[in-house]
Predict the structure of Cytochrome C.
Amino acid sequence: MKTILSSAAMIIALSGTAFAEGDATKGEKDFKKCKSCHAIVDDAGEVIFKGGKTGPNLYGVVGRQAGTVEGFKYGNSIVDAGAAGLVWDADNLATYIKDPKGFLKETTGDSKAKSKMTFKWGKPENIIAYLATFSAEMPAEGEAAEAESATTN
């Protein structure tokens, strides 16, 4: 089973530098392909990006435990991954978006794992950078450095 990030490592992964590869402006344009299944709606109900309801709301996805959007009916494999501690970060989101079923098979260790997401995107970095703009407040670089230092001491 794939190792799940510790909270200190997750803080580092969620730092602004983790999304340096992607361009959020380009990601907004790329997200138009995602909107057939996904919307981005904030906690107050404000629609940021109108989309479908086949997939879960992606507001706050970066840093969120997998399979936990209230009111969305997930498949068993992603719920199991989330229950085992999977939290979405840039790396595992990129791997998932490139091959959802393969990611869940590897993450859960179940060769029969399935994903309801059938769409695959070869270069998801921009989309991830865009989605990160709607996630929990990113720590400042100094805070990320402190968290990294704490994990190595």
In short: The domain at 22-137 is CATH 1.10.760.10 (Cytochrome Bc1 Complex; Chain D, domain 2). Confidence is low (pLDDT under 50) at residues 1-20, 137-153. The chain has one domain: 22-137.
